[in-house]
Write a structure and sequence with these properties.
Length: 423
């Protein structure tokens, strides 16, 4: 009786979610416990796959948001080709798959005690921990750019309110205005993303604000699918998009949010709408858990994606350093499946097999104009390396409805992956 009273007292102090999480963890009947931190493309996939491969596992997914807002296709929201609601997904499907959902944040990871303390006060024990917390903006990397500045010059690199703000600014801009996008150095979330964004904003400007121009200030000299993007810009938006690479003074060294000004070593660019895509790093929980190195990203081995720095903790998705594999939702989903299969093997005392992973990144250049790049990766000398000769990009010259077909493949991919992860 005393125990039950104490339990109820603790549960009410911790909020309504507490009893279900606590009891789910203790009804494992001796089975192993896996905790997954982060219910995005990587984490939600890992949780579901673990449960599918080994139903006896107790799998708890820790995610504070009730609704996940997807970044892929959020550039189409900016161009009014989609509604924000089409980007949003709940966790009913994840729960139906047998995963216990802890609707709260992970606050502290203790890799020695193998526990995760949640912001509602509960503590989860694990045999294996998977972390897929995505990215944080590195607010100290670009002078002048902080959280307050992001309200004036949105990054829109975490989809949601920032995406809506940027779209509103574009809609409020007068025809003839200059839109400036600054793109960071590698590595960052979604390498083709800034150029897809420039393309779709150009698409929208051509229809609604045809006197306007778009300037991309880049901290790099080359970018993903560059020839395909630049060909398409010349064909669809002649004279509208100006791309300034690093070697021509494209690196933004500071911003002034009060005047929407981008400063480079070569000059100042005052924008009517300014989109700063700033440098990024692994989500804070990964950095505080001690799985990130000095780069701000998390080194992992290439078979089970176990941290090089903290045994028993696996890191997947954008937060991890995955060799040649880019930071994409496609990649996070693929890594999650490999990681889940490897954890099942490790918990059974077996050695996981070397994986082969695929990534494909689609980009829209206009509503009915898609391009893509694909890669194949496998462990080689301690990292995930490109398989030479595998993969490739869309051809530079095509006939007929090829680009329209690729745009359809892009939306089928989005529908498939989101149904698989959240449906
Ligand atoms: C504009 C744009 C366009 C893109 N387009 C594409 C595309 O076309 N194709 C593609 O493949 N990829 C695309 N991406 C990239 C894709 O969004 C990311 O690579 C993908 O979301 C990474 O998955 P993840 O699991 O690592 O992180 P996320 O999907 O961001 O998930 C991280 C989750 O962790 C949670 N979390 C963080 N900290 C904690 C904590 N302490 N406790 C509990 N939960 C926590 C967050 O709430 C979040 O739900 C795009 C990105 C952008 C910005």
């Amino acid at each position: 009786m005393a125990t039950r009273r104490r339990f109820l007292k603790l549960a009410s102090a911790a909020g309504l979610a507490a009893p279900s999480i606590a009891s789910a963890q203790s009804t494992g009947g001796g089975s192993s416990r896996v905790v997954v931190v982060g219910g995005g493309f990587g984490g939600a996939t890992a949780a579901r796959t673990l449960k599918m491969l080994e139903p006896k596992l107790t799998v708890t997914l820790v995610e504070p948001n009730r609704i996940f807002t997807a970044c892929p296709f959020s550039n189409s929201v900016l161009a009014n080709l989609r509604e924000m609601s089409q980007q949003q997904f709940g966790y009913d499907g994840v729960v139906k798959a047998g995963v216990t959902l802890a609707q709260t944040s992970a606050e502290v990871v203790d890799g020695t005690a193998k526990t995760v303390t949640l912001s509602d006060g509960n503590k989860l024990s694990y045999d294996r921990l998977v972390m897929s917390p995505g990215i944080d903006i590195n607010w100290r990397a670009l002078p002048g750019y902080d959280e307050a500045a992001a309200e004036k010059m949105p990054h829109a690199w975490k989809a949601g309110a920032q995406t809506v703000l940027l779209r509103q600014q574009l809609q409020d801009m007068e025809d003839g205005g200059l839109v400036v996008i600054s793109a960071p150095a590698n590595p960052f979330r979604c390498p083709p993303g800034p150029y897809e964004r420039a393309s779709l904003i150009a698409y929208w400007l051509t229809i609604w604000k045809p006197k306007s121009k778009l300037l991309i200030l880049d901290s790099k000299d080359a970018f993903s699918k560059q020839a395909l993007f630049q060909n398409a810009w010349a064909q669809l938006y002649p004279g509208l998009i100006d791309w300034v690479p690093l070697s021509k003074g494209g690196k933004v060294t500071s911003v002034d949010p009060s005047t929407l000004t981008f400063v480079t070593d070569f000059g100042r660019h005052k924008a009517a709408v300014g989109n700063v895509i700033p440098p990024q790093m692994a989500g804070v929980i990964a950095r505080e858990a001690g799985v990130a190195d000095r780069t701000g990203w998390c080194p992992v081995e290439p078979v089970a994606f176990e941290s090089i720095l903290q045994p028993g903790i696996h890191v997947i998705g954008d937060a991890a350093i995955m060799g040649g594999m880019p930071k994409s939702a496609f990649a996070a989903n693929a890594q999650a499946k490999v990681c889940a299969a490897a954890i099942v093997e490790l918990l059974a005392g077996r050695k996981p097999v070397d994986p082969i992973l695929i990534n494909t990144c689609y980009s829209l250049v206009a509503a009915d104009y898609g391009i893509s790049i694909a890669g194949v990766y496998r462990p080689d000398k301690g990292v995930l390396a490109d398989v030479p000769g595998a993969g490739g990009a869309s051809p530079l010259t095509v006939v007929g409805g090829f680009r329209g077909q690729e745009a359809l493949y892009a939306s089928s991919w989005f529908n498939t992956i989101t149904a698989e992860v959240f449906g």
